[in-house]
Specification:
This protein is α/β, with parallel strands linked by helices. The chain folds into four domains: about 120 residues, Methane Monooxygenase Hydroxylase, Chain G, domain 1; about 180 residues, 2-Layer Sandwich (polyphosphate kinase like); about 180 residues, Endonuclease, Chain A; about 170 residues, Endonuclease, Chain A (2-Layer Sandwich), CATH 3.30.870. It has 19 helices and 27 strands.
Length: about 725
């Protein structure tokens, strides 16, 4: 292999995926540290960094620990072995946690107090009146729920549940020897962690609201739990366990039953992280370390409240709307703003949906109308993650009640949604739907709905294809795209997808769709290689791609080769990116940016210039080995010019973003774009404004007087 080609696969030209993910959490933390972000939104972003870190440890760090135990030593694409990765992760995570709490203690708590909300960080700060209130609250609301647990020869060390908050104590009997005894109190998750105290008036005559955390109330009243003991010391602590359970699907007689068993095991997994109050008593810490079998490098001494996910509850407090970004209401889809039903509108031409800028309601309506339409014969759909009270699941159940043929693939293995999906699967089966539990060894991550309808000119197939889950709740928070179409060839392919999922029918070829795990990788590589050939021939060649993560070695090597050939490559990658951008002779033609804003960037969009015969695709897959090799994913073309133009503009705005975007530097760090002399461009805000403008233009065109209630940013009111 030539020297130049060797560079494409050289480990030094790749970034470790776990360290890249930590860089992403730093970008989220940056939003919490940014003083131009509304105060309560800063609380929300700090909460997200904490919940992100929890999942990272339970899955990614846990997986690396398993590799170490199994003596697996193969390096990753960046040349790091599992022990080397764990060492670097530990160092970077300790730094991240230190920044989290610096932000919390030095910036957010003082800012809250300045705005009339005092977070009492220690029960010792309480005034006498507040103390009385807290003690009464403890006796009436908290004490009846608590179960203090002692540890001695007859009572072994109790199971400490994953992610639970606990208070560990060392005690001495009031009568007897001086021997120290260990005890534990679990902070009950069934009670609110944030407790509001009576309002006071400060020296300036302004009202002050006060909140205290539940563990502080329990700590203040610990003596009530151990009446015959003197309490020597106590400290809150929290653990993370390995939640990455393995499943032998070949051996599982009943997949649903096996997953239910495995879910219970999550509470018993290996402890991979211990968080404990800073400056905890060394004797108490020694006991926890021994009993929980936790390594020194996995102990995090926390200078403040443990588990900052409670800040999301703080964000939800009423009365502080002026300290939050104004809420945006997803807009109607202009193409559907008429008296025609959804089937008639789809027959007029493919309908592009862009969530959350546009409402998710048409997708729900598509399934709901299909459930009651007498001409609909069958509904087939894949479900990966659905909401707690899903209207789509209700509509599918109703369709089965109405005698439709309803086939639903419920992916039970969607991580941390297994329990929810088991409930939906049972409900759908009970309603008479044919429920498929996915394919052995694969996760079905594609988002597709097929409706078969009898019409005057014969059977017609209507298809919805999307980049995001059929979840009406997350559709308000995640940026995703979808297409509703009755294109005959897409309909044929959709039928083939469901035949493949429900049986053993594997098509020899596809008309319009590209499907993983057998065909999608090859399709992507061919599209990238075609741009490379065009560039070498002096033709127009460029790639614009947007996804959640990029860590597939074959794809990255192909992008390096394309860049070296002169292909202009612009990538919008929200999270993990194992590619190095801007390296001379390798990736100088590649630009990578990550957007962290009000909405979670989730769409997957791929644009290939193809010497002027541009091709645009969307799909459910990221450029990751798991998506291309171990999941059922679908990529679909955008065929009509009107939606193609909208997608181009969508991507142009994201590539111009200089407010919420972060640009990947050659050293692997991310920096905000230089805005000097430039107008600020916030792509998410611009897309909100564009959706509002489109609705108003449609209303003006049709003479409708109805104006939807939406947020319009102050600075743009004169433009719309």
């Amino acid at each position: 292999m030539a020297e130049k080609e060797t560079r494409y696969i050289d480990p030094k030209n790749y970034v470790n995926r776990e360290l890249s993910w930590l860089e992403f959490d730093y970008r989220v933390l940056g939003e919490a540290r940014d003083k131009t972000t509304p105060l309560f939104d800063r609380l929300k972003f700090l909460s997200i960094t904490s919940s992100n870190l929890d999942e990272f440890f339970m899955v990614r760090v846990a997986s690396l620990k398993d590799m170490v135990h199994a003596k697996y030593s193969k390096p990753d694409i960046a040349g790091l072995t599992p022990p080397e990765q764990l060492e670097r992760i530990s160092k970077k995570t300790h730094e991240l946690v230190a920044q989290q709490y610096m932000t919390y203690n030095r910036s957010l708590l003082p800012a809250l107090k300045n705005n009339g909300l005092n977070v009492i960080v220690s029960h010792e700060e309480l005034t006498p009146l507040q103390g009385e209130y807290v003690d009464r609250y403890f006796m009436e609301e908290v004490y009846p729920v608590l179960t203090p647990m002692a540890v001695d020869s007859s009572r072994p060390f109790p199971l400490v549940r994953n992610q639970s908050l606990n208070i560990a104590a060392l005690l001495k009997k009031k009568s007897g020897d001086d021997e120290l005894e260990f005890a534990l109190v679990q902070v009950p998750s069934v009670l609110p962690r944030i407790v509001m105290l009576p309002v006071t008036v400060n020296e300036k005559g302004n009202e002050m609201r006060h909140v205290i955390l539940l563990e502080e109330i329990i700590e203040r009243n610990m003596k009530q739990l151990f009446l015959n003991y003197n309490i020597v010391t106590f400290h809150p602590f929290r653990i993370m366990r390995n939640a990455d359970f393995s499943l032998d699907e070949e051996e599982a007689v009943d997949l649903l039953e096996e997953i239910e068993k495995q879910l219970k095991k999550r509470q018993w997994g290996e402890v991979i992280r211990l968080e404990i109050e800073e400056k905890a008593d060394k004797r108490l810490l020694k006991i926890l370390k021994k009993e929980l079998e936790v390594n020194e490098e996995d102990i995090y001494e926390i200078p403040g409240a443990l588990d900052l996910t409670f800040l999301m509850k703080m964000y939800g407090l009423s009365g502080y709307e002026h300290l939050k970004a104004p809420k945006y209401t997803p807009q109607p889809v202009p193409a559907l703003m008429n008296e025609d039903d959804i089937f008639t509108n789809i027959r007029k031409g493919d309908v592009l949906l862009m969530h959350p800028y546009e409402t998710f309601d048409p997708v729900v309506e598509f399934v709901r109308l299909s459930a009651v339409d007498p001409d609909v014969l069958a509904i087939k759909q894949t479900l990966y993650r659905v909401s707690g009270n899903s209207p789509i699941v209700a509509a599918l159940a109703e369709a089965a009640d109405n005698g439709k043929q309803v086939s639903v693939l419920v992916e039970l293995k969607a991580r941390f949604d297994e329990e929810n999906n088991i409930l939906w699967a049972k409900k759908l089966e009970k309603a008479g739907c044919h429920v498929i539990y996915g394919l052995v060894g694969l996760k079905t991550h594609s988002k597709i709905t097929l409706v078969v309808r009898r019409e005057e000119d014969g059977i017609r197939r209507y298809v919805h294809l999307g980049t995001g889950n059929y979840n009406d709740s997350t559709a308000k928070l995640y940026t995703d795209c979808g297409i509703m179409t009755c294109h005959p060839l897409i309909g044929e392919d959709a039928t083939a997808v469901f035949n493949m999922l429900s049986g053993y029918s594997e098509p020899l070829s596809w008309h319009m769709l590209a499907v993983a795990p057998l065909w999608l990788r090859g399709k992507f590589l061919k599209l990238i290689e075609r741009e490379t050939r065009h560039a070498r021939s002096g033709k127009h060649a460029s790639i614009i791609a947007k996804m959640n993560s990029l860590c597939d070695k074959d794809i990255i090597a192909a992008l390096y080769e394309a860049s070296s050939a002169g292909v202009e490559i612009k990538l919008v990658v929200r999270g993990i990116c194992c590619l190095k951008a801007g390296i001379p002779g390798l990736s100088e033609n590649i630009e990578v940016r990550s957007i962290v804003g009000e909405f979670l960037e989730h769409a997957r969009i791929f644009i290939f210039e193809n010497d002027g015969s541009e091709e645009i695709y969307m799909g459910s897959a990221d450029w990751m080995p798991r998506n291309l090799d171990r999941r059922v994913e679908i990529m679909f073309p955008v065929l009509r010019e009107e939606p193609r133009a909208r997608i181009r503009h969508y991507m142009e705005l994201e590539l111009e973003d200089n407010v919420k975007a972060h640009v990947l530097m050659p050293d692997g760090t991310y920096e905000k774009p230089d805005r000097r002399g430039k107008l600020p461009v916030n792509s998410q805000k611009s897309l909100c404004e564009l959706a509002v403008a489109s609705v108003r233009a449609e209303q003006k065109k049709t003479g409708s007087e109805e104006i939807s209630r939406v947020f319009i940013p102050v600075e743009s009111q004169n433009e719309i």
